[in-house]
Specification:
923 residues, mainly beta, Phage tail protein beta-alpha-beta fold, Immunoglobulin-like, Maltoporin, Chain A, 3 domains, 5-stranded mixed β-sheet, 7 helices, 5% helix, membrane, transmembrane, TonB-dep_rcpt-like
């Protein structure tokens, strides 16, 4: 270090004069540091430079000058740096970082406001470059450490007075990005929030700006930013003591009022910690079903129904990879490890333009970023499952790996089900997940996620079922400049099931199904200005399905080998959206997505007679297509528009319009989703489904965001929804188009949500909704219920969820979860008739009746271990009782004819209270 600033200031006040004229010099240098160049200049002249060593860095430079003035040499040397220089005398040159040294104070500094260019005040509202003065502020409030940050290089000739500051904010302890962090300009009613990646962009006035950061669970901070050019500033923040209070929170409590999108739900994995769920297993997707508009067809169903949509109309993404079946154990558990899952963003109203391929919703699930600071872990031991997740730094503060595993080790649960036929059944599952994240530099980050899950169960002694999910995704995030950043994502997902039959006769077989997809996505974000934030890109995915096969199992089996021909399809899209801040009250998000789909060979496509029902008798011809030959094309525009308008600072109204195409369908004639449902691609005979949705809502926060209230209504229409004919045979059917129908759907509803934070925290969600379908063809066999609208299998008008947690102390809390739902529709036999001396049952119109209503109460008591920071293990005990009231809720109702009588039977999953003790610990 050559000087300290005190000496510089002393010299400055001793000789404050105009800069001396610099001598001419001849100089040549190659691949040397800037400090070495300054030493060469000092050797050639009588000049001496004063600076701090760390300012100059270690970058190597080259240059060649012949008889030029020294200021030209210095301008070249410091051109791409933040270094300015000041000629103090004919022998002394002072270097400064960022700022310029001024010979005189600006006019008006001592109270005379005569200068046309006043110096910057604390808010940086200067009209041109000028010296910056600030003083330390004292406050009676809690002391907040203020760091001074200098961005860019001051230039006296610059007339620009606004610059853009961007960067990333991470958690000091874990290295994970801090999303929804409020960054506000002090004494100004402006600010921004970080996105899910911890990224922010804010416009600042030239000169001095005071930035304040606030977020629940994160320590408040102040940054004194002196900015002279567009630049980047990445920083980390510490967790606050308040994070030890486990409450249901949102990272940005006002986001529900401020964001433009409708129907958005954000859930953290932490929110599932204190909610009593079946067998004490944390489950972020089960928490989602307590939110308005999200439900399941029944207890034990593996699918989700969102705003009156079928279970196949939801897109589940884990780190951008598709999960086709997000459930374990007949839908009782989520297929996601709660210890490796960070959060989930659910879009059920206005779906952003970058997502496509489903009509109802997107569940964008993100796993945690590995801890790059130290080795950490979390584990749990429960009555049915055990779980562990480990995080290990690979390169300190740069790269880390996270691995997690979960499995079940008991089959006693099936013995508790009120069905004697299931008492001897078995079931097991496991899932594995791994993630690697590497921050190469400030502009590049790569991450890779791998996931595999497998379920095996036997409902009878002669059949064994297997189904599995696997995915891999690789993402490269790149920052092009201060305004542009993008992601390149490559992924592969696969879902398959297998049924093995081993009976007493010679009909042993193996039956299976496979769907595989490979996708590529390019997503770019362009921060044009504070008013316009663009997102654009393209996506493409290649589907390969093996629709089904059956093969003999063993040399003595008489089963014939059958293979349904494979299907292939290519779905692609381009998209662009603009988050447009019209003014302080109005925010509009406009998006357009154009998707297109190609059905590909090799395949044989059957052509049927026009106007006639599809059957073997109306088959006109069969066309054969070679590999990769396009057999059919579909596509069209998908419009995504939403707007938010502030009626008051904490009260907003939102409206949206959403349209979408879906090129893939599930084939199922069950009333609930099943692991052996198959997926069917659109082709010459089966069109893609299309849907539109309108939403309108009011959003209000009370008492400093302690209370959150939202009321939202929606109306949906859909076309070419796939359904089945009565008695349809869907599995291993090569002419599947003869067994299905495509019709219209409509759904509407109102959703009310009241949330509270604090000592008593939780939410109340109520949904009134209706869902209908119409199957009306030109022929009688293509009509259901005379071609009139009838309730869908998942039509449940009333749905109420109450989730509450009361904290007695920081360590002890009690939780409750109450659910009520209208019984789902069912088709009942209403009479009998005799034909050809045989008796038959006559059924009602489809879904004309309902099973009994569903309600359930769960209670839990939570005990946390010591909150000592230096404690090696932090423990958490959960004592819960599922279905406290012992309600015998029906899972399904079916009918059997015995001795000439039709008898009704009801199946329940849990008909008695289920107590659970679970032990969790972190280290």
């Amino acid at each position: 270090m050559r000087i300290v600033f005190g000496i510089v200031l002393l010299l400055f006040f001793q000789r404050a004069s105009a800069q001396e004229e610099l001598p001419k010099i001849t100089l040549s240098y190659k691949d040397v540091t800037r400090e070495e160049v300054l030493h060469q200049i000092e050797d050639k002249t009588n000049l001496h430079f004063f600076y701090l060593d760390q300012w100059l860095g270690t970058q190597k430079i080259s240059g060649d000058f012949t008889d030029v003035t020294l200021d030209r040499v210095l301008d070249t040397i410091f051109n791409e740096t933040e270094i300015n220089y000041y000629v103090l005398s004919n022998t002394q040159i002072v270097l400064t970082q960022n700022n310029v040294i001024y010979d005189t104070l600006p006019e008006g500094f001592f109270g005379e406001d005569k200068s046309p260019f006043p110096y910057a005040d604390i808010n940086g509202e200067s009209e041109a470059a000028a010296p910056v003065f600030y003083k330390e502020e004292k406050s009676a409030r809690k002391k907040v450490n203020t760091e001074t940050v200098r961005i860019g290089k001051e230039n006296k000739s610059s007339r620009q007075n606004r610059y853009t500051l961007t960067g990333f904010v991470v958690n000091t302890k874990t290295g994970e990005p801090i999303g929804n962090l409020a960054i506000r300009l002090k004494n100004k009613n402006t600010g921004v929030s970080t996105d899910d990646d911890g990224f922010y962009s804010i416009e600042l006035s030239a000169g001095l700006n005071i930035l304040e950061t606030r977020s629940l669970g994160i320590e408040d901070s102040q940054k004194r930013v002196i900015i002279y050019n567009d630049g980047q500033y990445n920083f980390s923040l510490d967790e606050s003591v308040e994070q030890l209070d486990e409450v249901v929170i949102q990272a940005d409590a006002a986001k529900n009022v401020e964001a433009a999108g409708t129907g958005e739900t954000y859930i953290t994995s932490q929110e599932s910690k204190n909610i009593p769920l079946v067998l004490g297993e944390r489950d972020v997707l089960k928490v989602a079903t307590t939110m308005p508009g999200i439900t399941t067809a029944g207890e034990g169903s593996s699918g989700f129904n969102v705003r009156g949509g079928n279970a196949d109309q939801n897109l589940f993404l884990l780190d951008n990879g598709v999960v086709y079946n997000p459930s374990h154990f007949f839908g009782l558990f989520s297929a996601l490890n709660p210890f490796t899952t960070k959060d989930v963003n659910i879009y059920k109203g206005n779906i952003p333009a970058e997502y496509g391929g489903r009509l109802s919703s997107v569940f964008d699930i993100r796993s945690k970023r590995p801890n790059t600071e130290k080795f950490t872990g979390e584990a749990s031991i429960g009555p049915v499952t055990n779980n562990i997740a480990l995080e290990l730094p690979v390169i300190k503060e740069k790269a880390g790996i996270m691995v997690g595993g979960r499995s079940t080790y008991s089959d006693y649960l099936l013995n508790a089900i009120d069905n004697p036929d299931l008492n001897n059944s078995t079931a097991s599952f496991f899932d594995l997940v791994g993630k690697y994240d590497h921050n190469i530099n400030e502009n590049n980050d790569i991450s890779a996620t791998g996931y595999y899950s497998r379920d095996a169960f036997s409902i009878s002694s002669d059949s064994l079922y297997h189904y599995s999910n696997q995915l891999f995704s690789l993402a490269w995030d790149h920052k092009f400049n201060e305004k542009n950043k993008g992601s390149l994502i490559l992924g592969n997902s696969q879902y398959k099931f297998n049924i093995g039959y081993d009976g007493d006769s010679n009909n042993d077989f193996e039956l299976g199904y496979v769907i595989d997809e490979t996708d590529l996505n390019i997503n770019v974000k362009y921060l044009h200005s504070e008013a316009h934030k663009f997102t654009y890109g393209l996506s493409s995915k290649l589907y390969n399905t093996q629709p089904g096969y059956i093969r003999p199992d063993g040399s003595e089996s008489d089963v014939e080998n059958v293979d349904i021909p494979d299907e292939r399809g290519l779905e692609s899209a381009v998209f662009i959206s603009d988050n447009f801040k019209v003014n302080e009250r109005l925010l509009v998000e406009m998006g357009l997505r154009y998707s297109f789909y190609f059905a590909l060979g090799p395949t044989e496509q059957r052509i049927y007679e026009d106007g006639a029902p599809k059957s073997e008798g109306t088959l006109a011809e069969t066309k054969t297509y070679s590999k990769n030959e396009v057999t059919q094309t579909y596509g069209g525009p998908e419009v995504r528009v939403s707007a938010r308008y502030f009626l008051m600072p904490d009260l907003s109204v939102k409206a949206s319009y959403n349209s979408a195409y879906q090129y893939i369908h599930t084939l199922s004639n069950n009333t609930t989703s099943s692991p052996i449902d198959t997926w069917k691609l659109s082709d010459n005979n089966i069109k893609p489904a299309r849907g539109t949705q309108y939403s309108l809502g009011l959003y209000k926060n009370f008492e400093g965001n302690t209370y959150e209230v939202s009321l939202e209504g929606y109306y949906k229409r859909s076309q070419d929804i796939l359904d089945f004919k009565v008695g349809a045979q869907l599995l291993l059917n090569e002419t599947i188009e003869t067994e299905v129908l495509q019709g219209e759907g409509k759904a509407y509803g109102v959703e009310l949500l009241l949330r509270k934070s604090g000592k008593l925290n939780g939410w109340i969600g109520y949904t009134y909704s209706r869902s209908f379908i119409k199957l009306d063809g030109s022929n009688a066999e293509e009509r259901v219920n005379n071609g009139e609208y009838f309730p869908s299998n998942y039509d449940k008008p009333h749905d109420i969820s109450i989730v509450a947690n009361y904290k007695f102390t920081r360590r002890y809390s009690m939780s409750a979860n109450f659910v009520y739902q209208t019984g789902r529709p069912v088709t009942y036999p209403v009479g009998r008739y005799t034909y050809n001396n045989a008796e038959y049952v006559f059924y009602s119109d489809r879904n004309a009746f309902r099973i009994p209503d569903y309600y359930r109460l769960d209670l839990g008591f939570n005990i946390e271990g010591s909150h000592k920071i230096k404690q090696f293990v932090h423990s958490f005990w959960n004592f819960s009782v599922y279905n406290v009231l012992g309600r015998n809720n029906p899972y399904s109702v079916y009918f059997v004819t015995q001795d000439g009588e039709v008898k009704a039977y009801k199946t329940s999953i849990f008909s008695v209270p289920i107590p659970t003790i679970t032990y969790n610990f972190k280290f």
